[in-house]
Amino acid sequence: xxxDANTAALGDALHGAGVGANPGSPFPTVYGNVQPRIGMAWAxxxxxxxxxxxxxxxxxxxxxxxxxxxxxxxxxxxxSSNDGGKTTIPNVLNNPYPTGLLQPTGSSxxxxxxxxxxxxxxxxxxxxxxxxxxSFGLQYxxxxxxxxxxxxxxxxxxxxxxxxxxxLPNWNFQQTCDELxxxxxxxxxxxxxxNPFKGIPAFVGTNYYTAAxxxxxxxxxxxxxxxxxxxxxxxxxxSWYNGLQIDFRQRVTHGLSLNTSYVWSKQILxxxxxxxxxxxxxRSVYTYGLPHxxxxxxxxxxxIGRGKLVNLQNGIVDSLLGGWRVSSDFTIQSxxxxxxxxxxxxxxxxxxxxxxxxxxNQVQAxxxxxxxxxxxxxxxxxxxxxxxxxxxxxxxSNYDWLQYPLLENEVAQPTNSSLIRMKRRINDDLALExxxxxxxxxxxxxxxxxxxxxxxxxLTARFDxxxxxxxxxxxVYPGQTPTADSPPRxxxxxxxxxxxxxxxACRAGAS
Length: 511
Fold this sequence. Notes:
- By secondary structure, the protein is mainly beta.
- It is built from seven helices and 23 strands.
- It has helices spanning 3-7, 171-174, 187-190, 207-210, 216-219, 315-321, 387-392, and strands at residues 37-43, 48-58, 119-122, 130-143, 146-165, 192-194, 213-215, 229-253, 256-275, 280-285, 292-301, 324-333, 337-339, 344-346, 363-364, 370-374, 377-379, 401-403, 416-421, 425-438, 441-450, 475-476, 490-499.
- It starts with a helix and ends in a 12-residue tail after the last strand.
């Protein structure tokens, strides 16, 4: 087939930076991002101060996603056997690429670059995300060495980046097969038709070149010669944080210094899509949002030693038992929001279990009886005599979830939910330390314990969100988590000696 004749009518194509009239930069240089800050403090009384502040920031790029190398980077596969690994090619290490290395095509293919593939581009109109931070609060001096602060702290992030597919079929077609946001039938998307690109040389190396048929979804894309055209840098993501922060600080008083703080907050993140075709963004609580967090940091010098409450007159005894300090770092905070399944929605029978017993071997967050919908028909996976029916029965009203087939860039519900949270975390670190001098050598002994009271924390474990996992769906097994996910108490000892002996003085020589 004539390559040009069969590709001339393909329409829009991928264009390289710096080629022809195209700019050489992924987006224009920005010069006007000024970052102002302002703060104020007003002494209302001798002991009470009003404070406030505002700052505008611009975030740094989290990656180099704007640098796309399609056409300018390629891999050459090493062939070590011609019979599936039964025998190796002789002297393959002496000449591993007898036909040479594959060379990147650069922009030489022009509009034929990336045909038959999923390609990635970057939004040339991308704007650098803005962060607005502000606070307003009071500080009160409780005593000579202690103060307490109470403040509202807010944060607003706008223009953050999301990915969108410029090559989605339009909604007029998608609604015929979308069973989640319309009354379509999935078979309208998965039905196949003759592949119009089969055998066209420009598609060599892709499924387009060899497949006899293609599904209706891909053939109804605006540019069917490509699969997804994922464009990064769409300024549609945002974040909102509101928090009450209370801090109490006490400088050393009778051997005790203390810092304690409490935070009550909520953070919402809008990122990604519930349904891109309908322009519905996804919004939920932030993945690591913790509504409650309480921390205590304290250091206490034991009242044992010469001239202290327990007065040790003997020098040797004082050097051994006096001057010890105990420090603690204690944190208790809410568990992280639960991740929900993306391809199922809860039914009226489902119950989210909020008062979880984390001492059980299997902790269940929600019901795990799941129905499936396909082409408008709701059924029990495995049929009325299968494993699901034996466990949950055949009465649909007793089922907890309905699973749907998903289309591209669509989910059934927001990713995170604060209805259920993971196990709350308790961290308690303790240390015992003593410093003293032997002539000009400073010696420090330190013993410390991380997670001193051996609290069982789940750092990364999450509930099973795969509706096809039967009785394990919606559960987690705390006792089966790896040690790295629930680290036990760790004890360490340390000794340091630092000499402060001065160097010998240098004698100046005669001139």
